[in-house]
Write a structure and sequence with these properties.
290 residues; alpha/beta; four-stranded antiparallel sheet
Length: 290
């Protein structure tokens, strides 16, 4: 019999998504998490950590493109990028497509996740690890941003959901340390869950952003395996103009960057992503007034 693998992230809401695995490619319990990689007939390779889907080969491009190209093209002059988490190197691969970026520092708490990705996600890791601009640091993300002397134009927090070792990456203490580590005009983006199911998480994140930064909000993308409709990416910066950059300006920056191939992101999609459905916009507005 084929194994049934369930996403348990929303057990408290009374439902699960279950995937039929064609075969198990890898499974392990590390000091930090339970990891399972399996093959699905539609989504391809699927990686789950602690019962939550992290990446699939079918639609990884949506999340990775929107977490990287939106802040980088909004900023327009990015040289230093910090990635917290992202052990599969999917985010780093997209960042390194930008010729203006001089260095990408990736801080991953679990070295075994990177080693695992070298074997099972070479499409991400091979180009990243071969790039001299990539600097991998095995460390706790909270500890790193609290002590580093480096300063970053963009910080991308590619975290798991707010439980276990990833919980601190949703704290005000962590966001304050990120703020300290940013250059003037820098921007931080975060994984902020599915608003329909995780509204409390989004509300809490935006409130913390607004207490620390001049501009705190989110933008959205539709990612099929992050069930619930919209996926929210948190946005925090002291430059209020960045999320209002026109599609024409973004298109010019994209052309200058080499017009590399994308499958979801476009200049128009970037602008539209900040147009929030009313139920999300109302929560964001209320969180910003606290």
């Amino acid at each position: 019999m084929k194994r049934q693998i369930s996403e348990t992230l929303f057990d408290d809401l009374g439902f699960r998504m279950t995937y039929e695995a064609e075969r198990i490619l890898y499974e392990m319990h590390t000091d930090h998490q339970h990891l399972v990689l399996f093959e699905h007939k539609f989504f391809g390779k699927m990686l789950m950590l602690d019962g939550a889907t992290q990446v699939t080969s079918r639609e990884e491009f949506i999340y990775h493109e929107m977490m990287t190209h939106v802040p980088i093209f909004a900023h327009g002059r990015v040289k230093e990028v910090l990635i917290v988490g992202g052990g599969d190197c999917g985010i780093a691969e997209e960042v390194l497509k930008h010729k203006s970026v001089e260095r990408v520092t990736q801080v991953e708490i679990d070295a075994s996740v990177v080693e695992f990705s070298k074997e099972h996600f070479p499409e991400f890791t091979k180009p990243v690890l071969a790039d001299d601009r990539f600097d991998l640091v095995i460390d706790d993300g909270m500890k790193y941003v609290a002590k580093t002397d480096r300063r970053f134009d963009v910080i991308i927090v590619d975290s798991t959901d707010p439980h276990g070792p990833g919980k601190v990456l949703f704290s005000r203490k962590f966001y304050a340390a990120c703020h300290r580590s940013m250059r003037k005009g820098g921007v931080m983006v975060t994984q902020n869950g599915v608003p329909l199911f995780q509204m409390k998480e989004l509300r809490s994140g935006i409130a913390k952003f607004c207490a620390l930064f001049a501009d705190g909000t989110c933008y959205i993308a539709a990612i099929p395996t992050y069930i619930g409709g919209h996926m929210a990416m948190g946005w925090a910066t002291d430059d209020k103009k960045l999320r209002h950059v026109s599609a024409a300006t973004i298109a010019a920056r994209y052309k200058k960057a080499g017009s590399f191939r994308t499958r979801y992101w476009t200049p128009q999609v970037q602008v539209a992503a900040f147009a929030l459905p009313r139920f999300i916009a109302e929560v964001v507005a209320k969180a910003g007034t606290r």
